[in-house]
Amino acid sequence: MKKNNIGYLLREGIRGIFLHGFMSFAAIWVTVACLIIMGTFGLVLFNLNEMIVELEQENPMLAYIDETYSEAEAKSVGSQINKIENVLNAEFVSREEAVEEFVDEQQDESLFDGLDPSTFRDRFVITLIDNSKMRETESAIRDIVGVADVTVHYEISEGFQTVQRILNIASFIIIAVLLVVSMLIISNTVKLAMYDRKEEIAIMKMVGATNGFIRWPFVVEGFVLGILASAIAFFLQWGLYNFLEVQIAAADSLELITIVPFVEVIEIVAAGYALVGFVVGVFGSVLSIRKFLQV
Amino acid sequence: MIEFRNVHKIYEPGTHALNGVSLKIEDGEFVFLVGPSGSGKSTIIKILTAELMPTSGSVFVNGFTLEKIRRSAVPYMRRTLGVIFQDFRLIDNKTVYDNVSFAMRVIGASEKEIKKRVPYVLELVGLENKSRRLPHELSGGEQQRVAIARALVNNPNMIIADEPTGNLDPARSLEIMMLLEQINALGTTVMVVTHEKELVNRFTKRVIAIEEGKVISDGMDGYYAYEEE
Fold first, then answer.
1. Among B103, B106, B111, whose Cβ lies nearest the Cβ of A4?
2. What is the mean pLDDT of chain A?
3. A108, A136, A152 — which closes off a domain?
4. Which pTM value belongs to this model?
């Protein structure tokens, strides 16, 4: 492309947005709507996922230490457990603490007064990095000298993993479908704007403009529309998220639902929106102009 | 130089638009292409501008061989032609100046070249005082002059005028034809496609007559020779 064309192509692209004000307005808001639906789905699924991860950590693996070990000996086993690759954290709980915890959990605590701590074993509460590798990790812990037994609730953790897998697949499908839908809508909106300029394109072709030259202003237009839409959608999403966070916190007095603060996901949301806006805007216009260039 | 060698064009349902057309127009000529509606005149123009491909035969346009032309070369072939239509085809929201400069911009001319060339061409067609007007503020004859200026601005080898006077009254029509004659005198080949007999008869030029997709006469008689036969 010649240097003296760049300014012209950019100017034409931006002029197009104002020239077809209503179309541009429609295209922006359709994209904003699709982005917000997509973003909201994504964020809801992300939060559900986070909640599941949290719940999973409440179902830890327990490694009981040989009862003949002294407390100091029992604690030293911890370093070996921590050496296992998939172990995130192994927290030592002595027999005394275990008894206390057990008694606390009972409804009628007086029944267990004077329960001898020696009936319990010292233990490690182990959280894992990847729960899908639970079985391998369990056998690795069993192989450590001094570990008498390991308990783990596979049904619960596997149940969580299934739910998580379904959520991931569902979110992938929903986001992919919405992406295609918004691209088609943008492409059709740009097509209408372009139809408006059919004559202009015909004249450009007649005087010998190359296809690249004809396409550029529309690509610039699509790009600017897409980026504007993603910026608007981003700020609306931010507001919506914070609003819902406050509403849920007010309604959820039992604190069953934990919501990840928006600031923790702000970069991902911003980058995702910018990318989707760019792709939808540019490819939307490229798709629609192809038809007009076949003369 | 343009040349058709035994060109056939068959449209999908078996309609023969051209049945072996052969003709040659040398650089600097002024030619009328005449014939009734449906005779194949429009097909000839569409083949010349590479909007259509011939079904068989060879077409040469200013150094390009059209049956072999690559899609990417088509814009460069079109730059050797300036086309004028009956309905002017101006962009309504652009001024006279912008309509003309647009044709230079879209082939990548610099601002400096545009500023030099556009006023010269507007003066040539007699519109130097109306460069800031919009097309709807002009008469039909003036609009066609803008279209001629646009066709000329990239300095093509040849001007193809497709029924250029179809929408104009006789006086304006004559003015436009005289302008095309003047452009031809400056060295540009001119081909005027028309079915206006009176207009053709006023000029002593080469006339190629087409009927049912064939050249039925080609001579310097300056009138509808085939009607005399």
1. B111
2. 81
3. A152
4. 0.70
